[in-house]
Amino acid sequence: MADKIHIEPIPLTTTHSAHGGSCDGCAVHNAGALLKLGVDMQNWDYVVALAGNPNTGKSTVFNALTGLRQHTGNWPGKTVARAEGGFVYSDKRYKLVDLPGTYSLLATSLDEEIARDFILFGQPDVTIIVVDATRLERNLNLVLQTLEITDRAVVCLNLMDEARRHKLQVDDRRLARDLGVPVVPTAARQGEGLADLLQAVHEVATGEVVCKPFRMQKEPKAIKGALDRLVAQLTTAFPGLPNARWVALRLLDGDESIVQAVRSGELGQLISGTPDVAQRQLTHPRTELVERKMEVTV
Ligand SMILES: Nc1nc2c(ncn2[C@@H]2O[C@H](COP(=O)(O)OP(=O)(O)OP(=O)(O)O)[C@@H](O)[C@H]2O)c(=O)[nH]1
Ligand SMILES: [Mg+2]
Fold it and tell me: What is the rounded distance in angstroms from the CA atom of residue 141 to the CA atom of residue 14?
């Protein structure tokens, strides 16, 4: 039977607006970067991103949680549609953003770039990764990539009704233990498990639950030196850059969109408050990047 979800209507008066900081329960999202990404966080406590492979039920979850409190538009400067909405849960106002469905976050397509930029620069308070319980193996690729970027995530193990129908058993507790983030089984079309999903999101957003996401333990020896140097350069050139290690790994991997973002200064612009300074501080970006890249490819 479907769980009952209790979502309160959004009050007309505002509660406190989110701010950066490290106090218990404080939001961690980057409001400035989010604004550049087209999401205004004024009057909201937390922002939650919905990521996942195409056709896993993201929009179904989105509609179930936001009801009529949603609106659609495009991502700034892009022709890709975006839906955002909101709900109140346990006196906190949540903004929910439906990201494009992607198989990866390696930014080989516009959809992947949008999803990656949102998670990397917007630093959502929670990212819900919706996965298809009947195709777990394929879906885990995106989960692991997402957990490399953010340590605030909840896996929504959706289409559990289909998994049951195919007599597939998924050990969600074991999965949660292995991934280091909460895993909530759902059948979103039937509303099943959504109350638990909301609770898990709330616990991660407020810091009641601290995730310890599975990460690649160690980088290969051959790239360690280059990685350390590149991280140091990146953090000097782009103060406030979230997850510099991930960005450095992508640069070493030759990710063209990240290389371009560094060269053009777009990377700096996405980090709130440090747009042009970052570009000025990065002396000879082209040479540095080529050198770093060569170090690992030789
Ligand atoms: N059986 C079953 N069907 C579901 C469930 N959740 C979603 N669906 C169906 O799966 C299909 C895809 O759902 P969407 O919510 O559009 O999936 P999406 O991830 O938003 O898809 P894209 O935006 O195209 O990436 C729809 O027909 C839904 O009704 C579920 O838990 N069980
Ligand atoms: Mg959708």
Answer: 39
